[in-house]
Amino acid sequence: MVPGLHAWARLGGGPRCETWLAWSTRHWCPVAAKVARPAESDHSQTARRLAEEAGRVTALSHPAFQRLLEDLVHGRPPCLLYEYAEGPTLASLVDRHGPMEPAEVALVGIQLASALRYLHAEGLVHLDLKPTNLVLRDGRVVVLDLGLSRPVGAGGGRRLRGTPRYMAPEQRAGAAADPGMDVYALGLVLHELLTGAPAGPPAGDGELQRVIASLLHHDPAHRPSINAALSALALVTPSTGPDAPWPGWVSDLAVRLSGSGSDAPRTTPPDGQRHRWSAPSRNIDVRGSADLT
């Protein structure tokens, strides 16, 4: 495979690269190795794209994004070593357990919206958000695969980048990278978690369904900003009681985001309160599909 790496199991792949679960003798732990396919190893464009991806990922510092451990783009074959995000994908959870409860979907949505808010503030658009690229690790969502991400405003080009069924209409039309494309994909992901289907009519007329419908507006000018999406999802998440992921004052902060592009003023939290930011209500074994045995 690559010197110092021992292949364990294939995790996925695209036209140029494959991702493998591997054991790193240097780090002495499992890693996710994104490796150029043999036929692509000597192509300069493959190494260049991996180097561009490494540059984008290295600049990120947010717990919702998979960390890059080592840049080996000058090796043979070119390779990027990522931390292994141990846990099932959201796609596998829905396949195994069926649609999620609305409260669970809202909590996943808030975590994804917060990750996208950070990513967009860094000037990047993910462009390939989908349940198979989202892992639930210890009750928290981790976003995988920034290989197709592009700076805001980057031209779409003739070749479509992303997964067609999770693309916004303007992304399929080849428009320049825009945060609204990720907002649309967020709506598709939440719709699939709630209904078990990747697309289709809204399921019910509750507050969460109305939020999802707004994310899926065909006209990007009428979609909410990522700040407004985060605020709306916070409003449909319990802010009191044992299922609250945070104290009520955090919801107040989120609500203020919808009217401002900047962070809201800080509020001092009450002493002694403990809330959970993770832990779905269903009894899910997050190690169930790790394939580490």
How would you concisely characterize the structure shown here?
With 293 residues, the protein is of the alpha+beta class.
The count of strands amounts to 9
- Sequence stretches where pLDDT stays below 50 over 5 or more residues: 260-277, 279-293
CATH class of the largest domain: Mainly Alpha
Number of helices: 8
Strand order of the largest sheet: 1-2-3-5-4
Kindly identify the CATH topology of the largest domain.
Transferase(Phosphotransferase), domain 1
- Given helix and strand content, the structural type is alpha+beta
For the termini, the CA-CA separation is 20 Å
Backbone CA Rg: 19 Å
User: How many domains in all?
Assistant: 2
Shape: globular
Order of helices and strands: EEEHEEHHEEEEHHHHH
CATH superfamily annotation of the largest domain: Transferase(Phosphotransferase) domain 1
Q: Report mean pLDDT, rounded to a whole number.
A: 83
Hey, roughly how much beta strand do the residues contain? Answer: 15-25%
What does this structure look like?
The chain is of the alpha+beta class and 293 residues long. It folds into 2 domains: 79 residues, Phosphorylase Kinase, domain 1 (2-Layer Sandwich), CATH 3.30.200; 168 residues, Transferase(Phosphotransferase) domain 1 (Transferase(Phosphotransferase), domain 1, Orthogonal Bundle), CATH 1.10.510. The chain is built from 8 helices and 9 strands. The protein has a 5-stranded antiparallel β-sheet with strand order 1-2-3-5-4, covered by helices on one side. It has a two-stranded antiparallel sheet with strand order 6-9. A hairpin with a 4-residue loop joins strand 2 and strand 3. It is globular, with a radius of gyration of 19 Å. The C terminus is likely disordered.
